[in-house]
Amino acid sequence: MAGEDSKCTTAAGRVPWARVTTHLFQTELWLPVPRAALFPFFADARNLEVITPPWLNFRILTPGEIPMRAGAVIDYQLRVHGLPVRWRTEITAWNPPSGFADEQQRGPYRFWRHTHSFAEQNGGTLCGDRVEYAVPGGAWVNRWFVRRDVEAIFNYRAEALKKHFTAKEN
Q1: Cβ atoms within 10 A of the Cβ of 112, count?
Q2: Which residues contact 155 (CB under 8 A, 6 or more apart)?
Q3: Could you give the domains of the chain?
Q4: Which terminus of the chain has a smaller tally of CB atoms within 10 A, N or C?
């Protein structure tokens, strides 16, 4: 499932004086792994490097072990169309093993909230991603540039997760 809605809203109080157009990206992926075995993979922030496309040159900057919990802050570095970008996210909800959420504190978006959900289904786990985001330049920039990138990143992520967890099953 992938879809998009746009709405005009205040970006979670981060810019209370500005109204921004937010976009919605949603996708689901079923993996043949019980939720109790899958969630620990996502609970290790370093695994984000494993499921992020190589063309982003993604690197976690936060040193040492990152204890995942509400309030945890993680710093990253990546390249978007060749331009270096630093990104900081905060884990704003932590509900193992059913899900968690992270929000951009600093980075390329005007607003970014990513909610991850995990539901047991048909002997495996249905992984849901819901991303609410706003971009500089609004709907036009989203349509022609950002949306395509978001879709490509999540398509890569789905294939990497399938490969990772299918290899573990065999």
Answers
A1: 22
A2: none
A3: 31-169 (3.30.530.20)
A4: C
Residue 170 Cα distances to 29, 124, 127, 163, angstroms = 19, 15, 21, 11
Residue by residue, DSSP assigns 8-41 as EE--TTTSTT--EEEEEEEEEEEESS-HHHHHHH
Evaluate if residue 146 carries a pLDDT over 70: yes
Query: For strand 111-121 and strand 59-60, is the pairing parallel, antiparallel, or unpaired?
Result: unpaired
Distance CA 142, CA 135 (A): 7
Structure tokens at 145: 């540039």
Token pair, residue 147, equals: 């949306």
d(CA 102, CA 20): 19
Residues contacting residue 94 through CB under 8 Å, at least 6 positions apart: 68, 69, 70, 72, 100
Average pLDDT over residues 22-39: 97
pTM (predicted TM-score)? 0.87
SS3 of residue 2 by DSSP: coil
List helix spans (H) across 21-146.
Answer: 35-43, 138-141
